[in-house]
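User: I'm putting together notes for a lab meeting next week and I want to include a structural view of one of the chains we've been expressing. I don't have a solved structure, so I'd like a prediction I can at least talk through. The sequence is below, exactly as it appears in our construct file.
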Amino acid sequence: MKNRKFIIIGVVVLVITLLVVLLVRRERNVNTYDYPETLVVTNHTTHKNADTYSKIILNKIYDYDTITLNIYYEPKDYGSDEIEVAGFIQKNPFEPHHYNIFLNKAGLPISIKGFLSHELTHLHQMEIGDLVPLQDTLAMIYQGDTIWLLETTYPNRAYEINALDNQDAIYRELNQLLYRK
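Assistant: Thanks for the context. Below is the predicted structure for the 181-residue chain, given as structure tokens.
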């Protein structure tokens, strides 16, 4: 009976050690890239590597060289009782190619990689002119159609459907770029 207890403890220690070694090993084998000085991403959150993930998506997947992106937490109490906002991207209307991403400090429903894969798809939509935020209104123009945010639910907004359709492919490509030898 005593030997069985020691065997179980030994197996648990061995499994935990193996998991730690594999996780640390994977992080050490992350590919690094060079980026143009005109691609500036500043992470103001505790999400480790959010800036690196963003640079890879923007430069290596979407092929952007000139973007300024800040990643922040959402303002406190953003949203309402009916709507909980995981995060959003905002284009600076006064400076071309400048964006801010805001994310919920309480947590994301998906990983930071998945979240950025989605939000940076919106950045791409704005950069190519498919998505145009209308100033001082709660509306967006997507591929020529005006979408009123209070009249169209999130899952029925065409630009969200497009981002949801693309985020998994962007996520997979991000992981390939990070971990491919």
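A couple of points you could mention at the meeting. The CA atoms of residues 40 and 121 lie 17 Å apart. The beta strands are 39-43, 67-73, 87-91, 98-103, 131-133, 139-142, 145-148.

User: Perfect, that's what I needed.
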